[in-house]
Write a structure and sequence with these properties.
This protein is of the alpha+beta class and 764 residues long. Helices cover 28% and strands 26% of the residues.
Amino acid sequence: MKKVFEFLLLFSILLSACGKKMPTVEDKGNEVNSLGQTVYQDVPYIQEYSVKYYLSKEQQNLKLKSISQDRNGNIRILSDKGLLMPENGNLFYSGKLTKDISYTPLESKNIASIITADRQTIYLDDQYIFSNAWAGKIQIEHKMPQANVFAKGSDFNFLVSDQNTLAFIDENGNKIWTSSYKDVINLIYDNTNNRFLIVSPNAITEFSKDQTINILLERNGITSAALFDGKVVVGTKEGYLFLSENKLIKNLPWPEITTVKEIYGELWFGSTKGTFKLNKNGKYSYFAGERWLPGNEVTALAEGKDNSVLILTDKGLGKIILQEMTLEAKAMFYEKQVREKNIRYGFNCSVSSLDNGYASAKMNHQPSDNLWTAMYLASQLYRYKVTESEEAKLNAYEAFEAMERLHTITNIDGLFARSFERDYIVVNTKKKGWEKTEIETGSPAKMWIQGADHENWTWRSTASSDQAVGQIFALTAVLELADDEDWKKRALKCLDDMMGYIVENDMYIIDIDGEPTLWGKWNPDYVNSFPTNVGDRRLYSSNIIAFLQTAYKFTGKEKYKEKAYELMEKDGYLENLLRPISKISPSDEDEWSKNLSHEWNHSDDEMYFLAYQGLYQYAFDNQLKEQYKASIKDHWMVERPEKNALWNFIYSQTGEKEIDLDASILYLKNYPMDLRNWAVHNSHRKDIELLPENFRNQTTKELLPLAELPLHRHNGDIFKLDKEGNGDQLISAGDVWLLPYWMGRYYGLISAPTENMNSKTNNM
């Protein structure tokens, strides 16, 4: 009960007044923001997520055959050992399948099949067709001891098979018609044409209203059939076909179909590798792996109550919920999750371990605590500016304190730490419960140093360029968005100390040992040592000019402006950062260049875009601003196939009208609700067009929806098709989703919800 209560609390934010109509298309108005860009109107859309119910270890040998849900919401599953029902599950606490004891007399019956008809469950055993609905009056003796397949026709007549004989039986048990017929897989009543469809491995036939059998299709490998939009759909081991067209469709997520079903006006398929549905655009939405299902071998599909789809698999039941919500409701769901599972000393912990399940998340220090926390901090300031939420302001302040302490804990003005931890390893010391951490970068500095503010705290050294990007991004957010002057003074000191330290140390981050850190290098001797086609030359030039412009913007100190112009004019940094992104390619000029350029680095993209505000908005003059704009656009055009909402929204601030808003909204909508690291596999799919190996590692011509891909962070490869995982880690939405969403709200690209989404709740 405690777990259920926790879950309902977590979901109470997003549950909403839905109405009866389920929107199927985007509803985007014609409003524009201050830059003349279209604004997405945040109306309710359909968000999918899954609840899973697993077979226990003791039940692993059970064969799950069919499923039915009645109008009261009672779900019954037929196994080869009796009836089961789901118990307790929700999104984060999976349920189980337990013995159905609701009707005690059923325990002794040899039930062979169950169906749903007229929104009630009907049973077939070795003696009767019967139901517990209709006051139990439906009890029809069929006199076919081996009967195992049946379908209800008009009124209460039934077609029944025992794999040797077909019998048409009326409500009094009279066999109106019988015929020899072997190997029946399924029987389907077609109400429109007043006929039964008979499905067998080698044929689809009809039992017509004149009580004759007519062959409709003959072919090998038939596994299932269904009625959809007035047509007969046939599933096979090699794909599916519409009976009226008799053309096999093979370009599917997986062609080995096990079952077909029309659910809520959409065509769903079960297969030996997950389930998928046919969309109106002719493409498929694919649900596979434990993000969606307990097992991938689907045995049955059924329409569930309250906009859900029931998917029976070899390992249990998956229930896909189709929940109406707005983007803001999704944001509030993530907000609560981040606060409960991903906040460590104010840091946004990018990945929390779920060693004991979802209830208890273990948060460890991260190599990029600066970066992930900066992105979350900015998201909360954007949220505060558009909603005036005091909670968001408090969240941002807490994150800023963590970022600020990274500066003060080193006791060296301008040198910031990667992270800090209580009672962690100190130099040359092994403390109880902790293993000694060896150095991980090229700097000879020890990784963990005793803190300057308290002997029980240590800080992680070897600050890097991406950590510097995080610091600048966070401090700029505070200076631009905070309404507290004390915050701004403290942020300005951190910014000035940090950039002053870098400038005074010849464009290096000098670590505690007096040597440059491995990645904290913007000195021309280092940057220009790379061939022009190596990305680090362009990246470091772009980043440091953005940093210096930002420092000059807020401090007014000429040394930052002078250094920026020196680097641009004397050392070629302007030429470096304006170099077309298409020129970046692999290099074997030296081993270091080879190691840094063997493939496209998506962490570089993150560093570029987070620093573009300082590059473009704080340009020293309009000429530079136009040059920067062209460079940013050049980069964005290359990134465009990734459809990344964060990149698109940052790019929007250059004033361009075409920013792929539709793709950005789909990014936010399709990002999965379940942020656990479940295994995801797509490379087997037959409905995707694979590209040859390439420098950018773009695997497919078109990006798959994020709900079907491995979890994506902004510094990761979004085109990665496969990834292993077992659900024991939870990534933070603080940087991957909340930042682009609240940025979109702040920039006026996404409206506030246009309907009251909190007038009702709906238990899930």
